[in-house]
Amino acid sequence: MRGGSYRDGAVVVRSHDFGEADRVVVLLTRSHGVVRSVAKGVRKARSRFGSRLQPFVRLDVQLYPGRNLATLTSADTVAYYGAGIIEDFDRYAAASAVLETAERVAAHGEDPALFDAVVDALARMQVSAHPVAVLDAFLLQAMATEGWAPSLFDCASCQAPGPHHAFHPGVGGAACLNCRPSGSAEIDEQTLHLMWLLAGGHVAAAEAILAAEGGGHLGAQAHRLTVAHLQWHLETTLSSLKVMEQR
């Protein structure tokens, strides 16, 4: 994108040092999708906004388009979501997965709804006792914005009404007895109900189910299915989700 400078809301996805004093900052913006930018001189001691350019910070930014990198000329902090996240491994890993997924999905273009979902997920992640459920809610909603959310009640292949007890991302989610392909996951119908709540943004209701369950079987199964569906459609494995599997 070329032309004059513009302002936009943004969340820092990641950054790395560039040259002697600059920093490359990858931003998820509300109206311009993913923007790779360079903040010049921010590693100098007298930099006005260098400390703000870190993940989990929501900014109001001024950007000037360039051939490969936009130039980040100002950044005002709107919200800092790191408190309550960076001190806790589970929250940090889940929040990192939110940002990585958003970057992959937003590569297809601008999506204000996706930006709002990221902001909502990070804010909820700070206080939730179930960060993985917050992550799964975001993943399901992000997939819906792309048009490949899983079917969670009717059979994804023949639309036979559920609930069903098989799931396979290759057919689009839940599958009936006649349509289930080889390798389908055997699932509890309550898992699909939990995923339906998360997909609809009813995170508090989903967290209540998880709190009552205690053991975490439904939540663990819902997470596995959600991640499998996401990575099937992205055709790649996300590093942040892989780290979570090693926990």
Automatic annotation (TrEMBL):
Residues 5-81 form the DNA replication/recombination mediator RecO N-terminal domain. Keywords: DNA damage, DNA recombination, DNA repair. Signal peptide: none annotated. GO terms for cellular component: bacterial nucleoid. Transmembrane segments: none annotated. GO terms for biological process: DNA recombination; double-strand break repair. Involved in DNA repair and RecF pathway recombination. Belongs to the RecO family. This is DNA repair protein RecO.
